[in-house]
């Protein structure tokens, strides 16, 4: 049976300010969902809260992965349970090669009871698997010898995250604005990689985005609009087309009380100090 990621009545605050105000969302392994919404609506807040970022305080609600309480786990334990987050702005780690980072990450995820200092996955097996995944993704083998994200272009950083996704094989992958800062060719290349990995591992995917363009390549079965800290509309791909034609004005008109909440959030974050 496929695993289920279930989010119920989730409330999340940053610096004492409530951003998410009762999010309900259910994803099943193998499904592709898109989460859309204007700036400040809480999309990134949802991704970071699910992954366990310490600055994001869950004040109410639940989040479970196949019945396991995610909110009671540390971030690394959530990864071991099968959750993966591709960051909007991946961090550089000078001195740590892509290969070395992945060997440790894969060992920890596949051997969740492994203690630091215990044996890693064998170098021979790891190297064989890494080369195969890189070949399938059309990546130069030299890429694995570079320091993680150090001096990488935007597209290279996102491709490095797709390689992590391929090696870790999570039950669910959250892609937090993976298309941010990429040109159209890079969006296509990264999206094709995500599609290959998701199909191969039956990974459930939640694509968080502002724009339609990445959804031209990663085609969602389900689309949700997050507005004022809540999911207010859910449906199929037709919602993407509607937003592309009309923007969010119709959402603001339909939910005037939540439109006021959106305005308050924007005033709370006028210079973009916090990632919502």
Can you characterise this structure?
With 276 residues, this protein is an alpha/beta fold. It is built from 9 helices and 12 strands. It has a single domain, classed as 3-Layer(aba) Sandwich (Rossmann fold), CATH 3.40.50.300. The strands form 3 sheets. Strands 6-9-10-3-11-12 form a 6-stranded mixed beta sheet, with helices on both faces. A hairpin with a 2-residue loop joins strand 11 and strand 12. 40% of the residues are buried. The mean pLDDT is 91.
Note the main attributes of this structure.
6-stranded mixed beta sheet, 12 strands, Rossmann fold
Give the gist of this structure.
By secondary structure, the protein is of the alpha/beta class.
CATH architecture: 3-Layer(aba) Sandwich
Biggest β-sheet strands, sense, barrel: 6 strands, mixed
How many domain regions? 1
Binned strand content: 25-35%
The poorly predicted ranges are none
CATH class identity: Alpha Beta
The CATH superfamily is identified as: P-loop containing nucleotide triphosphate hydrolases
Shape by Cα distribution: globular
Counting helices, strands and paired strands, the structural category is alpha/beta
CATH topology type: Rossmann fold
Number of discrete helical segments: 9
Mean pLDDT: 91
Number of strands: 12
Distance between the termini: 34 Å
